[in-house]
Amino acid sequence: MNPPSPRLRLALVVTAVLLLASGSLGYVLHARHRERPPAQGSDASFTVEEPGLYFRDSAGGRIARQDGPGRPRVTGGPSCDRFHTAGGHALCLRSLPGVPARTEALVLDRRLREVRKVTVPGIPNRARVSASGQVLSWTTFTTGDSYNTAAFSTRTAILDLRTGYLVKSIEQIPLTFGGARHHDSDVNYWGVTFAADDNRFYATVSTRGATHLVEGDLRAWSAKALRENAECPSLSPDGTRVAFKKKVSDAPRSPWRLYVLDLATMREHPAAEPHGVDDQAAWLDDATLAYALPGRDGRASDIWTAPADGTGEPRLLVPGGSSPANVG
Amino acid sequence: MYLAANGRPDAPPRPPGARRRVPAAVLALGAVSLVTDVSSEMVTAVLPLYLVLGLGLTPLQFGFLDGMFNGATALVRLLGGRLADRRGHHKRVAGAGYLLSALSRLGLLLAGGAPGAIAAALAADRLGKGIRTAPRDALISLSGPPESLGRSFGVHRAMDTTGALLGPLAAFAVLWATADAYDAVFAVSFCTGLLGVLLLVVYVPATPGPAAAPRAGARPPRRPVLRDPAFRRVLYASALLGATTIGDAFLYLLLLRGLDLPPVLFTLLPLGAAAVYLLLAVPAGRIADRTGRRGAFLLGHCALLGAYALLLAPVSAPTVAGVLTLLGFFYAATDGVLMALAAPALPAAGRAGGLAVLQTGQALARLLGAAGFGAAWTLWGQRPALWAAALALAGALAAASRILPATPPNSSAAPEVP
Description:
By secondary structure, chain A is mainly beta. Chain A has one helix at residues 6-32, and strands at residues 52-57, 63-66, 73-74, 82-86, 89-96, 102-108, 114-121, 123-129, 135-143, 152-160, 165-167, 175-177, 180-181, 188-194, 200-207, 210-217, 222-228, 231-235, 241-247, 256-262, 267-270, 282-285, 288-294, 301-307, 315-318, 321-327. Chain A folds into two domains: 1-35; 41-327, 6 Propeller (Neuraminidase), CATH 2.120.10. In chain A, a hairpin with a 2-residue loop joins strand 4 (82-86) and strand 5. The radius of gyration of chain A is 23 Å and the shape is globular. The model of chain B is unreliable at 1-18, 210-217 and 408-418 (pLDDT under 50). Chains A and B meet through helix 1 and strand 9 of A and helix 1, helix 2, helix 6, helix 7 and helix 10 of B.
């Protein structure tokens, strides 16, 4: 093949640039005008005062309520990526558009009016409100903390509404392992759950390649590791047991199973859920757990429920939902 | 076909002192790399966000997807070099690599969130990157006279880095314009990647520079790497020095820790080093050509040692500027210069394969160095680990200055120059 003349080559390249540029521009414009659900506030009639199961509706990304099994869904809550509510307050985590990723943590009152808004770096991950509604915690995934730049780390905040005091990252909390202070640059906390006294809390800490269940004290500002391989704890309403996800295999598809730990005996047992659970479970009552699983039939996720004592069978509670929170 | 202006056998010798032009093929390859890097860095910048935020993968799954193919690239690179040497099909092999990477963006676009398809697309991208690197560097080295290789590689690396700096900006612009439509980033990246392939097809000559073009049908030497003692020395020295580099990310982390800077800066610090690299790549290459590539290569590592030393002192604001400058200079004086140092020691017919061996050896050594430093950090803590790294690098420098051939290797290749 003879090389084309410089003129022909230039014409070829210019044509290609024009074609590819218009293709790019066309796609960008198409993406710009595509229908996408805008972040919405809640309808005036939707509150978190009514009893029922509150959850995120995967279809529109807004919070909805179901008053009982088989009852119709009440829609009209705010758009959130993660949600939790208790004691007359709600916590709504929303990822903000743009790069780098940021998360807006909205604290809402029982009529879902904004009480406080905090913007933190990262991607929404966990949200919890204490039973009294006075202490809140959230976790985001962030990039850039780790020397392995592609890896994610977590950042967990605790907000005390009684004093208004906000700790944007609890990473500096003095942590002990078996009574000895643990210092390391790689500690990561996530998935806080509060006890009824609004002071004690449980969380996950990851350090040196292992995860641990830690018990923390807000007033004393200290934390101690209790047990290895327990993530995303969730304290039962009576405060005796912790539901958590336990890593049972190295398979990246479903490494975790749902377990329940009795805090008095420190004995654990698996819940009757055969699938991998990557969620912070919620207690519907002292005997029942609810959690999100990857959805069936093309849904993003479904909420399932299983007895906490390890008996029985898991049951599909809300198709197309996540972030369950029960208001009794 | 004699497209390259330089080194034509019948060209009259240029008057000494006149500024030589950079070979057209090098400029073309630089342009291809620039455009391709815009394309690939666009995707790299948004991929973690897309996979975790857009698709809801857990970070664990993301880490698995991301790390899955890293080991394989080393092997693919060797394969790419070998393929290119057979019958001198450098352009075709490099072009196939560029095309594969461009098509992988289309794969990401069409995968629609299926993890298997995304994994396949990422694999195609890494495969393409592995295949094209050695033939491309061989083309650069064959496109100009051996005595100005440092400058040729400097020009190429400067253009390449420009693309790498522009890529994330382009990605963020697209995300901003479309309110986080990741698919639009993939679409634009695909179009940009295709343009890179087209530039290669149209502007890069099919046969490398006539000075050293292997005969069509010439078989690559059976063991090009082990045969030449000069090349072997370059290989050993670069691997030894590579094993004592601790990885840029650690340096950035030490800066952030030392000054208690916000983690957002972690993404910005590499830009600073890249900007210095961009500015110094061409001058460093020219100086290396004039005063000896061996010296420049060693001096570059001295700059890295200087960066370690700066970090051992109390960290202050000027430290950041100092470390980033030294790191940028380190890359400018070593990256392209190493290729220019090694290329003349390799026969033209085995050049792509030889450069592939060199690059793979250096990459593996650096991986080892970073892992070792990470282990030392965990075991001994930050300062002792850094002291150990500095002492190791100083030792390696002393050894490398003995290992590296004392005479510039391009003089040994003098008979090849017409």
